[in-house]
Amino acid sequence: MASRQRSGEDSLIARYFKPIATDPGAFGLDDDAAALKAHGEDIVVTTDGIVEGVHFLPDDPPDSIARKALRVNLSDIAAKGAMPAGFVLTLALRGVDEAWLAAFARGLGEDANSFGCPLLGGDTVSTPGPQMVSITAFGRVPEGRMVRRSGARAGDRVMVTGTIGDAALGLDILKGGPVAAALSGDPAAKEMLVSRYRVPQPRNALAKAVREHASAAMDVSDGLAGDFAKLCAASGVSAGIDTPLIPTSAAAAGLLAKGVVGLEALISGGDDYEILCAVPEAHVAAFIQEAGRAGVAVTAIGTVTGERGMPRFLDAQGTEIRLRHLSYSHF
Amino acid sequence: MASRQRSGEDSLIARYFKPIATDPGAFGLDDDAAALKAHGEDIVVTTDGIVEGVHFLPDDPPDSIARKALRVNLSDIAAKGAMPAGFVLTLALRGVDEAWLAAFARGLGEDANSFGCPLLGGDTVSTPGPQMVSITAFGRVPEGRMVRRSGARAGDRVMVTGTIGDAALGLDILKGGPVAAALSGDPAAKEMLVSRYRVPQPRNALAKAVREHASAAMDVSDGLAGDFAKLCAASGVSAGIDTPLIPTSAAAAGLLAKGVVGLEALISGGDDYEILCAVPEAHVAAFIQEAGRAGVAVTAIGTVTGERGMPRFLDAQGTEIRLRHLSYSHF
Prior knowledge:
Two copies of one chain form a homodimer.
Chain A: H1 7-16, E1 34-36, E2 42-51, H2 62-79, E3 83-93, H3 98-114, E4 119-126, E5 132-141, E6 157-161, H4 166-174, H5 178-182, H6 187-198, H7 207-213, E7 216-220, H8 224-235, E8 238-242, H9 250-257, H10 263-267, E9 274-279, H11 281-294, E10 298-305, E11 312-314
């Protein structure tokens, strides 16, 4: 795209990606680089790659692969309180599959348009191995206003958007695990959980509320438990999480109640792409109100405490639950 | 790094990459994103990935792999007339090889420091396939001043930095091709050519001169012939290139003279990472003078002509040479 254009690559790019690179700073993908206007704001930069066999499955629909690749980055932009400004794409492909590329570009273009995050450039390379989609996305925030992981303070409420654990259950279904068997009579629930794995719903509508009210925030990508432990570590605090308050979908709650899965699978499973944040008590009402206006469900699940340490996950009796795994690890 | 931190990944990042992420906007790689200050300038964005077996070889020294990954992007920043502002890194690794990572991070940190282009964040993922290093790099230019491919006009001189074709010869040596055999008695020449393939010398020192004097510019990454054809197409012009004027190293000139390689291999081979630009006649003297001050060799190799079309490559008699391949293509 913008850079490393090569003859075979050029025609690919012209056919599939030029039509979605509508921002003037993309120069129609005809140059070596893009130009991003800053308008006096800070540029928030985040990068996330998804790998075939790890973050998506070889027979996932190509448009959903494109959407996931962009949305995992949009989720970081939202959690930092920033507005999407654009992205660049690196595609490592085994070869040219025109139908696959056409569907991939269509999904990417639709999401770029609906989230207001234009394609600015990219690179296409060949690989003999698993395919990979790597995106670097940009957001804009007023100078110095990016919401960090490190601002949580004792007394802040811990809030999370949406529901937790659905994507991990969806992956289990795609792999033919116990969740697939338990839901064999409920295709609608299976479809909902699989779609939560394949196409995250980043909470960009909440970005302004996060920026105005959260003391610390991040997105939940590798499991609520492990990600929240990182937020606590960055802030030098601990917290008590009331696990019965952790929001789950009806499907997930049913599987929990039947003992098909345990709580740990839900809160350490990853791929949720919800926003987890700390909100000072005085801001909680306004934050909830603005979230409601933005159409994003938010739930209070615990309270930050002052001493530095691992967060404590408590059951309905207030007894601490011991977790073996906090999050998904690549290595 | 900045994003998608996972337990095993976290310790990798802390050990090898935190020490080189010294820019305040990198937040010590402890957050989901980085913040890039724009200072009222445009942010130039470029992205280039290198794949094992394609752009580097499995037993290339890890520090040179890191340098190449960063420098191919620095080369784009330079060609656009921009000053380096930072970069993010996506590493797709088969597993954790501590010695490899330590050497990779050392090479990356040294180059980030010497080119003034700090590590801002990144992502580490596992892959069962070939390893890949994808970098998105940022530069700063005064508003609206990024040098495009599209500004060349009839009468402009075509200028190129350094020497052309060495990297393609170096790759032939690493693959045990005819160049390796022809240079079996000249280890110094072999080493020079291999190092030109492994560690490009991006011309960032020339960025200001390019911005002030070139009407169009790009870096030569996929072969002088094909890349220049793209610049002509983007500008709606053609050009005559006097191929005897194309600068070559003594080693390359010797191989040409002996008939070991032809001119086509040199000008369509790729991996040069030199700057190719069009300079209006009135700016040529100043451009050459500033290049001299910056310590970068520049050579005039032809003249832009008005009619739109493929550039013509002429021999010493002024006869057009027919090229079968213009550049390296991935697909």
